[in-house]
Design a protein that fits this description.
Elements lengths: L11 E2 H10 L4 H13 L3 E6 L2 E6 L1 H18 L9 E5 L7 H13 L3 E4 L2 E4 L5 H10 L7 E5 L8 H8 L2 H15 L8 H20 L12 H31 L6
Antiparallel strand pairs: 1-3, 2-3, 4-6, 4-7, 5-6
Protein name: PaaX family transcriptional regulator
Organism: Saccharopolyspora endophytica
InterPro entries: PaaX-like_central (IPR048846), PaaX-like_N (IPR012906), PaaX_C (IPR013225), PaaX_trns_reg (IPR011965), WH-like_DNA-bd_sf (IPR036388)
Amino acid sequence: MGEFAYPRDEAIWTTALVRVLNGLGVEGHAARQAISRSADAGWIERERIGRTARWRLTRSGKKIIEDGLHRATEFLDRSEPWDGRWLVLLVSVPQGERTTRKRLYGGLAWLRMGNPTPGVWLTPHVDTAGDLRDLIAEFNLTETAISFVGHTEDVGLSDEQIVQRAWNLAELANTYQTLLARYADHRPADGDEVLLSYLELRNYLQQFMRLDPQLPEELLPKWVGHEASDLFRNRRERWLAGAWERWEEILREARPNGAD
């Protein structure tokens, strides 16, 4: 829905969502559960039309999509030259608060922060300080967290060592190589094939946006992620029109007789 219902604010019939999810390998019952859970999370809301239903993005759902689109644009564009500064966070969560710790670490990873030593998180993307402030406030950690921006000194870990310790880039590089090999010669015909290929690749893009810290070239030259970004851009340009055409057909086929 984030791909096809935004920003048009179009309501989508359940049958259309289930049909596409089936094509992506999500069986009927699991597809309906996914829709229900998305509604429970407040991302989408249901409109009853007789015995059928259709779904719209909520305000919070649209906000998530907007944030994701902004991140996707950053991901697909090469980073600006780095000035050598890090945004650093010193924070710890009590051992008994495992759920809080897990959610916090997930939020920090989304902000492209790495963890080179216990209790220390950092990122070269210093412009995310505002988002970090909101995240720390969300978990009521403002009284115990310390954050600052600055350069490293010739005292402890070097910038190169920080990169090696803060992120598992070797595993990520292997995952990128697998993706590149998979799509190198993939040429979907049309109809469902191009729609599902497009959505599958967009799903991979969302996954890599969470995994790749998008380090500047000064810290990570010749990164395979740049080649993957080129792949995402190229395939989007090739497949977008065909994917939209098939999606519009599915919407028409899913519309109940007499429904607006």
